[in-house]
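Researcher: Structure for this, please.
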Amino acid sequence: MSELPAPLWLERRFQENKARKDDQRHPFQRDKARVLHSAAFRRLQAKTQVLGVGMNDFYRTRLTHSLEAAQIGTALNAQLRLKFPDIAPLLDDHLIETLCLAHDIGHPPFGHGGEVALNYMMRQHGGFEGNGQTFRILARLEPYTQHYGMNLTRRALLGVLKYPVCHSLVAHPTQQHATSSFRQLKASDWQPAKAIFDADAEILDWVLAPLSDPQRAAFQSLKPNGDAAGHGRSQCKSLDCSIMELADDIAYSVHDLEDAIVLGIVQRARWQAQVVEPLLASHSPFNQAQLDRLSEDLFCPEHYRRKDAIGTLVNALITSVTLAAQPQGEGQPLLARIARLQPDHHSLLKVLKAFVYTDVIRKPEVQLLEFKGQQMVMELFEAFASDPERLLPSSTGQRWREQIQQGHSGNRVIADYLSGMTDEFAARLHENLFTPRSGNLFELQSRL
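Model: Predicted structure, token format:
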């Protein structure tokens, strides 16, 4: 049987003394409640998942995506308990639900366009990246406590660390120079470094405190070749994080595919060429007849048949979960092994993700909306940075002044403010600021 993790992993950074009468919940149940009841979580209902909010009322938002990921996460837990009874004591459904529900709360309005925009505007102030912002919201910004965010358990914060390294250690140094114009910004040149912000380094140190120096060095080691944008890339994560990430990938690749099919964004001929044929040519968990039936059901006009095909894909991926050794985590039960799919199912997930990326996300119609959102976020940032004390809401302005008084740049506060906006809020604020005949005092007060 796997050794249980040390009690240190249940600690909170701020030791609370407000025990409520007859509260019998486990710490992970409290963590889940704090995420569910947070403003940051509620805002996911109006943030872009893949297709822009407002284009249609059928497809997923980041909120429904997170709920589906949470359900898949607990299903993965159930499979791992069945296949690996020795790790059953390590697995907690409330914890995995917490991680899946929280994993996207740091992502800004307008999806990847908003992330690129903020990374560019923060290029000389520590960059911006959605996962790093999620960590920051959970551990610092969300006002469940005054200074400690939601004050989640150490293990929950470890579980959201997809990239447990600081920005300055992995960011490519060429991402420092301004382009000639916002309009000329090429998104591929400003892919964010996957990391925690340097401003939150002390929180990262606290999370990793139970590790010895050699264990921490191994856990924070980088991949030899970095990523496609030239940034360094961490290579390790906790068992909990690997389950959350797998649930996220399954929800993204299968459910976003369903949205695209229903809305007519992808056609069967492309599916056949980009998914079915590559699977048959390499490693597929389905044979020719099974893939033909799946294709028929996915693209037929009868909704129940398409839903059954989606369920078949999700079930195939969930039930193929297994464990892989993570040598860098040796000696730590939460780090020694991570969740993975069996090879054939890993190939299926990889092909599905690539198809959603090329035939949905990169579609010109979607990219036009992403570009529009990207421009709005940069223009909003420029406006607020031009005169923060005049334009920022009072509470945000106070945070900005405190940062300036401490000798820091206040731009991180502006990035916090903008990244927390929903798509609709950001669009209307942009309209109020830059459209002469739009907005009035009462309208602006309601939004600030």
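Researcher: Any notable elements?
Model: Residues 45 and 391 are 26 Å apart (CA to CA). The chain has three domains: 26-236, 242-364, 366-447.
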